[in-house]
Amino acid sequence: MRITDRDNLIFTKNLAVMAKANIPLAQAIRTQVQQSRNPSFRKILFDIAQRVEAGQKFSGALEAHPSAFGFFYVNVVKAAEKSGTLENNLEYLADHIETAMVFKKTLTSALMYPAFMLCAIIAVAAVLGYTVLPTVTDLLSSLSGDPPLATRAVLALAAFVSAYGMMLIIAMAVLAISIYFFVRSPSGKRFSDHAVLHFPIAGSIVRRVYLARSAKVLATLLKSGVPVHESLAIMAESLGNDAFQGAIRRVIPEILKGNTISAFLDRKLFPPLYIQMLEVGEKSASIERNLDFLASFYQKEVENNVKNLFTLIEPILLVIVGIVVLFLALAIIGPIYQSAGQ
User: Fold this and answer.
1) What is the tens place of the pLDDT at every residue in 254-273?
2) Cβ burial, residue 88 (10 Å; 0-12/13-18/19+)
3) Which residues of 22-57 are buried (b: 16+ CB within 10 A; e: fewer)?
4) CA 315, CA 323: separation in Å to the nearest integer?
């Protein structure tokens, strides 16, 4: 079974409660082994408990299972081991995981209906192309008189699908596979990471997603006691977008020189509000609070933008379906009435 965010959230929250109750770490982890319903996660926790009992650091035991505990999680625990604030850092982690889960669920819910509509349109088009059109073509071709433009278009489409349909499907499959492997290559990933930020409408939503994530990750790391330059390096690693990673990594040398984050952030990627809130936070020693505000602000913006976008798309999809149905009705019924009249 796959390790889910829910598995991580329950484990982290329960471990934080037991750490506050001064229950030994290995014992607390073994308790979670018994409570977890995910067999794969139970095996991982059992191994972590054994490693901790053998004297290995908790962060080192977590690091041995990157599929369950990522770079960000491990580094927050490392900071806790240095500062002796494991229970607080686990609470920060639990809050971070829960916020990310809610955000992901909101986006998924907003995307579900338009995705269903799009799949339905593709399915209807496929059924029409391979079952209805070939049957109707013989009937329309046998009718006397000059067929209307809509009918001629349907006949041409049916002929094309009949002659080249399989080739078209193969070509689309090859194109999809080629794009998939290109995007997974280093150069392809760099290209797609930069390109996605410049897509019309969707680009601004994707940009806000990364702004929200960067603010939340940085706030969690700073609260956990991770030094600023290390926090930026971990944040860059956890974002996964080449454009944002490069912009953040360019700030790290300036931080080591004693400069502020806000002074050297890329103005093309980070909007004025983000930079101003960071600058105020750095001057007033309230940077974590300001970052939390930014994360919440951009998450709400993404949710509203996605809802507005798909509120607009829904009627457009319905209109498209209506136009296609009307066009097919005119193409099929029109020549039948014309022939009957003659």
Assistant:
1) 999 989 898 888 888 899 99
2) middle
3) eeebbebbbbbbeebebeebbebbbebbebbeeeee
4) 12
Sign of the CA dihedral with 91 first, then 93, 12, and 27 last: negative
Of 229, 222, 285, 225, nearest to 256 by C-alpha is 229
Residue 8: CB atoms within 10 A of its CB come to 20
Answer for the pair 120, 318: CB distance below 8 angstroms, yes or no. no
Q: Is 248 exposed, middle or buried (0-12, 13-18, 19+ CB in 10 A)?
A: buried
- Residues 69, 266: Cα–Cα separation, whole Å: 30
The rounded distance, in Å, linking the Cα atoms of 170 and 164 is 10
**Joined tokens for residue 225:** 């006691």
The answer to whether 216 and 222 have CB atoms below 8 angstroms apart is: no
In the chain, residues under CATH classification 1.20.81.30 are: 99-342
Q: Is the pLDDT reported for residue 334 higher than 70?
A: no
99-342: CATH, from 3.40.720.10, 2.30.30.90, 3.30.1640.10, 1.20.81.30: 1.20.81.30
Q: Which one-letter amino acid corresponds to residue 260?
A: T
Please choose, from the candidates 18, 12, 16, the residue with its C-alpha nearest in 3D space to the C-alpha of residue 41: 12
pLDDT digits (tens, 9 = 90+) for 306-329: 888 777 777 887 788 788 778 777
The one-letter amino acid code at 240 reads G
The C-alpha atoms of residue 252 and residue 229 are separated, in whole angstroms, by 6
d(CA 267, CA 247): 10
